[in-house]
Structure to design on (291 residues):
C-alpha cells in the first residue's frame, strides 16, 4: 500500500530529498532522547577513544569503527578532548554519534526503524526489499558539535546498482544556528562520484576511490530548517552537509540508511560496513502499521 502521494514521489525524484512534517509525534521524540541517555549512562566508556570526523584528513577507520555494523558504539567529538587526553565534560555532552546497530539491538530504536511506513516509502521510491543497513544517533553538541562536510551517502553505503535511501529525523528543532541540514536540490542527477571502502574485504583499513577529493558545487544549496519529528528522506546521490553547531542549544538527530536487498543488487564485500554472517540484514516487512 503506497504511503507517499504522487506529488511527493515527484518532488523526491526532482530534488533528491523530501520532507514530511510530524512524522513522529512528541512522544516518540522524547522516548528516543530518554533512551539514548539511558544507553550512555549505563555504558562502560573507559576504553573508548575513537573520534568521529568527516574531514578527510582526520577520518580514522580503526577496528572499533569498522566492526560497528551490528554494535552500539560511541564516537567522540573532536573538540571534546583536552591536550592531555581528558574529556572536557560528562560523556553525554561529548559524544559525536552512536552507531551503527541501534536499529537491531535496542527495542525502541528497532520499533521506529522497522516501521511499516518506512518500508512503504522505500517501495514507493523503487525498492523491492528494503533493508536497514545502519543507524546513527547524532548529537551535534552545543558549541562543539562539528560540521559534516558535503557528501553523498552512496559514497559510504554503496550498492550495485545504487539503491540507498537515507532517513533522518531531528529530535530538536533545527535552525541555521544549531547546524541544520543543507541540501543542493537536483545534485543527485550527477550520480555518486566517489566510494569509501575497505582496501580489501576483511581488511581493517579504508580508502577513497578515486583518491582525489571531489570539489562540490554548493550553488543553490538550501537550509532544511525542520521541526523535531519531521522526516527528511535523502537520495543516495544528493549532495548535503551541515555546519557546526555554534549555538548553545543541542541538535540531536536519528538516522537510518536502507538499501534494496532484491535479487540482482550487490552489497559489496569491500563496503566499510559489514555484518557478521550470523546476523544478515533484515527486510522491513509490509504491514498495516499506522499508515
Ligand atoms: Fe549524509
Amino acid at each position: 500500500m503506497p504511503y507517499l502521494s504522487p506529488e511527493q514521489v515527484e518532488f523526491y525524484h526532482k530534488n533528491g530529498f523530501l520532507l514530511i512534517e510530524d512524522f513522529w509525534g512528541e512522544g516518540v521524540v522524547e522516548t528516543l532522547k530518554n533512551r539514548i541517555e539511558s544507553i550512555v549512562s549505563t555504558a562502560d566508556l573507559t576504553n573508548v577513544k575513537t573520534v568521529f570526523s568527516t574531514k578527510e584528513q582526520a577520518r580514522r577507520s580503526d577496528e572499533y569503527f569498522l566492526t560497528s555494523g551490528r554494535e552500539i558504539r560511541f564516537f567522540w567529538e573532536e573538540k571534546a578532548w583536552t591536550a592531555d587526553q581528558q574529556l572536557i565534560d560528562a560523556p553525554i555532552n561529548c559524544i559525536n554519534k552512536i552507531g551503527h546497530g541501534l536499529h537491531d539491538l535496542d527495542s525502541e530504536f528497532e520499533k521506529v526503524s522497522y516501521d511499516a511506513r518506512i518500508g512503504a516509502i522505500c517501495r514507493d521510491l523503487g525498492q523491492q526489499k528494503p533493508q536497514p543497513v545502519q543507524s546513527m544517533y547524532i548529537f551535534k553538541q552545543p558549541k562543539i558539535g562539528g560540521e559534516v562536510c558535503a557528501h553523498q551517502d552512496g559514497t559510504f553505503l554503496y550498492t550495485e546498482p545504487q539503491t540507498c535511501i537515507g532517513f533522518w529525523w531531528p529530535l530538536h528543532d533545527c535552525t541555521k544556528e544549531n547546524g541544520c541540514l543543507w541540501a543542493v536540490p537536483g545534485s543527485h542527477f550527477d550520480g555518486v562520484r566517489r566510494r569509501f571502502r575497505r582496501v580489501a574485504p576483511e581488511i581493517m583499513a579504508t580508502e577513497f576511490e578515486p583518491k582525489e577529493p571531489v570539489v562540490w558545487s554548493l550553488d543553490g544549496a538550501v537550509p532544511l530548517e525542520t521541526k523535531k519529528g519531521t522526516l527528511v528522506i535523502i537520495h543516495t546521490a544528493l549532495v548535503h552537509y551541515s555546519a557546526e553547531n555554534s549555538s548553545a542549544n543541542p541538535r540531536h538527530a536519528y538516522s537510518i540508511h536502507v538499501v534494496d536487498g532484491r535479487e540482482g543488487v550487490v552489497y559489496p564485500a569491500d563496503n566499510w560496513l559489514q555484518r557478521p554472517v550470523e546476523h544478515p540484514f533484515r527486510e522491513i516487512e509490509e504491514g498495516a502499521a499506522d499508515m
User: Anything to note?
Assistant: Residues 26-42 form the longest helix (17 residues). Residues 35 and 266 are 34 Å apart (CA to CA). The mean pLDDT is 93. Helices lie at 6-15, 26-42, 63-66, 102-105, 107-113, 116-124.
